[in-house]
Specification:
The chain is α/β, with parallel strands linked by helices and 391 residues long. It contains 13 helices and eleven strands. The longest helix is centred in the C-terminal third of the chain and has 17 residues.
Length: 391
């Protein structure tokens, strides 16, 4: 597959947050409506031939039978083929990949990819995230997401001199970007001092080093490149993608200074796109914790191993930096509604490549944007998608 096969002609999302006033299906409908409205030349919902729904609803809520199959009915597309995609935190990213393959194969010409998640209607104590983090009954007992990522931070600090100020710089940057994003959960500037003074969670991670639990939904419309002109004169193409896996348990990891699955997935995505990391203009990466973004930009090849913290502190990943990262505010500010996260990141890449990101717009001189998620207990799976406005 090459980037002349599949085009993104529409994308949209709803404002992320604590959406107690909206049902799962209402959120999905809102994202779908936003995607339809974004299509330049108009789009009839009945043109959708198949849907791929990214969600962890069944896993998180303990009822797999309701996972995703209510979405087509809720958005007025009852009867179309619908497949649920669940692949931990990269569920939305993987749904975009699978949807692109469905179009590239010729099976479908027009595909909807939609991600939706309700994270706030149940508490963690009721088992919401503990279900997702469940693993070995002895080795992983008591582990939570911060516990899984804190060892990466302490080892990175030990080997490369990374400081808490460098971690905090990630949060400061992303919250600044979130202020400029009307869809972000949190829209408030913070300082390095605010991050350092926030309550400790798991050393060295403090509260503002962690992304929030968020409700949200996002959707994209994928079509065959041959039909893209029917919908827009500014198509964005799928340039490449990559997926990789790694050991899920910390005691099996080869290294605590890299996410191996990200490095492998990135290599596959770059190879498919026929480019290198130096040609990426902006990137939406998985910043569930501040240390994660530092690892990401190293493993994706944007900076050398060990230099992620310093590069962030020096402003290289800011909106006006060498390579803007998480222009949307990232998971830290926009939020992390698991199934929706990757699709929302794709939406930000789409806006950037079309020059429609408003105050967050950066220079897309090469015409490539990268989207990345990692997750699945200690980052046991990673997905990278690359989009382009070059045709």
């Amino acid at each position: 597959m090459s980037w002349n096969k599949v085009a993104v002609v529409g994308a949209g999302l709803i404002k992320m947050g604590e959406l107690f006033d909206q049902s799962y299906e209402q959120m999905a409908a809102g994202a779908f409506d936003a995607a339809v409205a974004s299509v330049d030349k108009g789009f009839e919902p009945t043109q959708v031939e198949a849907a791929f729904v990214a969600t962890q609803r069944g896993t998180l809520w303990g009822q797999e039978g309701i996972g995703g199959n209510t979405v087509p009915v809720a958005i007025g597309l009852n009867g179309i083929p619908c497949t649920r995609i669940e692949n931990a935190c990269p569920s939305g990213s993987d749904a975009v990949r699978v949807g692109a393959m469905a179009v590239a194969s010729g099976v479908h010409d027009v595909v909807l990819v939609i991600g939706v998640e309700k994270m706030r209607d149940k508490s963690t104590e009721e088992g919401l995230l503990s279900r997702a983090a469940a693993g070995h009954p002895i080795f992983t007992r008591g582990e939570t997401a911060p516990v899984l990522f804190a060892p990466f931070a302490t080892r990175h600090m030990h080997e490369f001199g990374t400081t808490r100020e460098m971690l905090a710089a990630v949060a400061v940057k992303n919250h600044h970007n979130g202020v400029l994003d009307p869809y972000a959960h949190f829209r408030k500037e913070i300082t390095i001092e605010d991050v350092l003074a926030s309550p400790p969670v798991c050393h060295p991670l403090h509260l503002l080093d962690c992304c929030p639990q968020t409700d949200g939904a996002a959707a994209v419309l994928l079509v065959s490149a041959e039909r893209a002109a029917e919908f827009t004169d500014k198509p964005v193409f799928v340039a490449g993608f990559g997926v990789a896996t790694d050991h899920p348990y910390l005691h099996e990891k080869e290294s605590f200074t890299e996410i191996k699955a990200t490095r492998l997935a990135a290599r596959r995505a770059y190879d498919m796109a026929g480019i290198g990391p130096d040609q990426i203009d902006s990137a939406e990466v998985h910043d569930c914790f501040t240390i994660t973004e530092i690892l990401d930009i190293e493993d994706l090849g944007f900076v050398a191993k060990g230099e992620g913290g310093r590069a962030t502190l020096d402003g290289e990943t800011a909106l006006d930096g060498r390579l803007p990262v998480n222009t949307s505010g990232g998971l830290l500010a926009k939020g992390h509604p698991i199934g929706a996260t990757g699709v929302a990141q794709i939406t930000e890449c789409w806006w950037q490549l079309r020059g429609e990101a408003g105050d967050r717009q950066v220079d897309m001189r090469n015409g490539f944007a990268l989207q990345h998620n990692a997750g699945g207990r200690g980052s046991g799976v990673s997905v990278v998608n690359i989009l382009t406005n070059r045709n």
